[in-house]
Structure formats: C-alpha cells, structure tokens
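Need residues for this backbone.
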C-alpha cells in the first residue's frame, strides 16, 4: 500500500510540475534592447493632479457635504460616493462631472529660500486637485456622486467646480536641450514651490513659478531652469566662494563674483496651467536636482 501511495504521490507531483512548466513556457520574455515608449506629452494624472496657484477668486458655493457611511469615514477616495450641496433645483443633472479642489497651506511654515514667503503671497493661493466626481443620483437640493478619479483624498467642505478639459501640450525632443543656452531676454522668475510644497525637483515633478499671463506666459511655453555659481541666495548649500576657490583644490588669483560666471542651465519644464501671476510647470528634463529658489526664464 505504501508503494502504491508513493507512486500516486510521485505521479501527482510530476503532473503539477508539468502544468507549472506549461504555464512558465507561456510567459512572454521582454526584450531588454527594445526601447520603451516615450511619452509625447504630460499624462492624464500629471495634467489633472497638478494643482494650481491663483490670485483670482475661485467660486466656492458648491461643496462636498459628506458621503456614504460617513460615521465610519474621515475622508473619501476613489470608488466612494459623496454628497454635493446642489441638486435638480440648481440645475444639476445625472452625468455631470465636478473637479474637486481645496486651498492648501504649507504645514511647516519654514521658508526654503530668502524670498519664498513673499513670492507665494504675491502669486496667490495654492489649490490641490483632489479628483473628479460624476453625479449618479439627483435630489432637489442634493446630489450623489461617484469618485471616478482621485489625486488625493476628499473631505467635507471641499470645493466642487464644473469639470473643464485641460490640454496636454506636446513635449519637445530632449536632445534639443541646450545646457549652454544664451539668455532669452524674456521674463525671469523662480521655482517658488512644488506640488504639496515640496522643495526639491527632478524629471516629472510639478512646480509653481511666479510667472503668469501678466508676464507673458502661455500654455505650452517652455521655461528654462538655471542657477548662478556663487550666488548667496542659492538653495543647494555649498562652500562659500566655490565659483573660484575650493579649499585644498585650488583657487584663482581673482575673486570672481556670481555674475562673472556663465550660468548653469539645469533643466526645463512645460507650462500646463497659467493664472495671472503664476504658472504650473511639468519638469520634462532635469540634468541635476533642482530646488525651490532656482531661476526660470521663458524660452
């Protein structure tokens, strides 16, 4: 009996191994030499989760009131149903879509560079894109909507704006980046803060710049990011006077100032949102790390 049981167990094991081998044989091998598809423009998430900064009044009458199972939920995410304080009496219909936003403040309140607080105040208020809601049920003065797309959690009191399409301007080829590009002569601003008040950026980062339509910025424009060697307002800490002297590794006879040296062009970004005195850029190329306080000029 033991011999029969052992034989049956072995046969079962071999069948399982054979099935596993067949499944393994069907796995597709990816060619490591095949180039990955390069994006031609910022993707949906980059465009619709970018947030914005504006000094214009944002209509705030339509808001999220609450949502289903609210006794057990602090916030609401994709797939949840939420309640909006407008209904059929105010013209809301099934299928209407709303963009959910809310004003945001830096919880740290610690400036990263010398003029950051003043520039942010002049630019306006930063708003988070929390996501999108589609109305599924309408009552006279209340609507129920399904969260179809989330960038962040939604909470009671968030502002609901009528959904508007946002264009995604095309990228230019990365090989056209000129790290020794001459000064364009157009408006110059700064990388003031990033999405959720981040201070360091690279490729695919979202950053707010203190240049807007009043300074000639248009959707789809490219901004060139640069910094000066030896500038005392630089955000990346380094040795003093490093532009002409490095302790233990040489110095020049002349003490060169920051404006005696060629600037360092370190990357560029495409404008995906514009207000009067601010724009949102999506970093499309970064040679090295960028920081809040680096300069940006219209190309």
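Answer:
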């Amino acid at each position: 009996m033991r011999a029969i049981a052992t034989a049956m167990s072995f046969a079962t094991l071999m069948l399982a191994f054979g099935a596993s081998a067949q499944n393994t044989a069907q796995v597709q091998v990816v060619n490591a030499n095949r180039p990955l598809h390069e994006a031609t423009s910022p993707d949906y998430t980059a465009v619709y989760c970018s947030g914005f900064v504006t000094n214009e009044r944002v209509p705030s009458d339509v808001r999220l009131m609450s949502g289903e199972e609210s006794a057990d939920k602090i916030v609401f995410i994709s797939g949840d149903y939420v309640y909006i304080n407008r209904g059929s009496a105010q013209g809301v219909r099934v299928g209407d879509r709303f963009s959910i936003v809310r004003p945001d403040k830096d919880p740290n309140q610690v400036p990263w560079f010398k003029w950051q607080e003043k520039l942010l105040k002049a630019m306006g208020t930063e708003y988070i894109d929390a996501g999108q809601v589609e109305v599924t049920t309408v009552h006279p003065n209340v609507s129920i909507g399904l969260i179809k797309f989330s960038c962040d959690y939604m909470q009671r009191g968030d502002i609901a704006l009528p959904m508007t399409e946002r264009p995604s301007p095309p990228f230019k080829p990365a090989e056209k980046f000129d790290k020794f590009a001459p000064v364009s002569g157009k408006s110059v601003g700064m990388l003031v803060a990033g999405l959720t008040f981040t201070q360091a950026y690279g490729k695919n980062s979202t950053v707010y710049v203190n240049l807007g339509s009043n300074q000639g910025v248009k959707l789809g424009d490219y901004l060139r990011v640069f910094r000066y060697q030896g500038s005392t307002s630089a955000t990346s800490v380094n040795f003093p006077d490093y532009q002409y002297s490095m302790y233990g590794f040489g110095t020049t006879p002349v003490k060169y100032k920051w404006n005696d040296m060629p600037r360092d062009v370190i990357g560029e970004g495409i404008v995906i949102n514009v207000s009067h005195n601010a724009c949102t850029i999506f970093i499309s190329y970064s040679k090295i790390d960028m920081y809040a306080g680096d300069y940006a000029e219209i190309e």
